[in-house]
Each structure stands twice: as C-alpha cells, then as structure tokens.
Design goal:
Elements: E1 4-7, E2 14-17, E3 23-27, H1 30-36, E4 41-47, E5 51-54, E6 58-63, E7 69-74, E8 81-86, E9 92-96, E10 111-113, E11 129-130
Bound molecules: zinc ion.
Residues 8-10, 12-13, 75, 77-78, 80 line the site of zinc ion (ZN).
Length: 135
C-alpha cells in the first residue's frame, strides 16, 4: 500500500500515515467549529506509531467535556489545524481529514458526535451512528 500523505496549507508541516485510519468520525462540537472556522471536523484515527510528521506544529491545550485535556496541533505559519491528541486516548493521533493530500478511498465516517450542536440544515451521513454528545 502506498502511504497516505498530508500537511497544512503552507506546507511547513507535512506528515505520512503508515497505515490506513482505523476509525473516522465527524465532530460537530463547538470547539471543533471554532478551531476549524467551519461547522464540523472530520477526524481520522491512526495509531501514533503510524504517524510521522515533519515540521513543527504549535499546540493549543483545550479541554474536553470529560475535563481531560486535548492538544490541538496547528501550523504556526498558516493556521491549519492538523492533528489532535487527547489524554483520554493515549497512543492515538486524530488527523484532520481535510489536511490529506488526497481523499481517494477514504470511507465515509462511521460515527457522528455532538449532533446536538450540528447546524439544523446539515444532512447527516447515511448509516453513521449518531451521538447527541460523545459516545
Ligand atoms: Zn502551514
């Protein structure tokens, strides 16, 4: 398999995924809305060992509903959100799907969370499991 690649808008941060994401989820929470400047984020979960990054990200320490920190990594030059690491999920890297160079073969998200915050006119993904908050 050819490894997936991605990076921020300006190219200062680049990464390689050495395996396919094992899960994907759309998050409609207000923090993802604020950070992305859009209405939701599409998160791809990969094992930390399979994520290789070149270039430094800046980190914003956020806090989830659980009270546990989540570390939102973004490019300090262009501002693209790139990955998040969550204290509750050690060993996992959550990659923002929009930073991939190609979406070819990426499956639709299996889960949508924080749907109680989703814009009312958004079509939800067919077949996805939905949670008003987190699972
Ligand atoms: Zn950048």
């Amino acid at each position: 398999m050819q490894h997936r690649t991605g990076g921020c808008l300006c190219g200062a941060v680049r990464y390689v995924l050495k395996s396919e994401p094992h899960t994907s989820a759309i998050c409609h929470c207000t923090h993802c809305q604020k950070q992305s400047g859009s209405l939701f984020s599409i998160n791809l979960f990969v094992n930390e060992a399979d994520y290789e990054q070149r270039g430094q990200t800046m980190v914003f320490e956020d806090k989830g509903d659980s009270g546990q920190p989540s570390y939102r990594h973004f490019c300090g030059h262009c501002g693209s959100p790139v990955i998040t690491k969550v204290a509750m999920m050690p060993g996992q890297v959550i990659v923002k799907a929009g930073t991939l160079d190609s979406l070819d073969g990426i499956q639709p998200p299996q889960t949508e969370i924080y749907t109680d915050r989703a814009a009312g006119w958004l079509e939800l993904v067919q077949g996805a499991r939905r949670f008003a908050r987190s699972p």
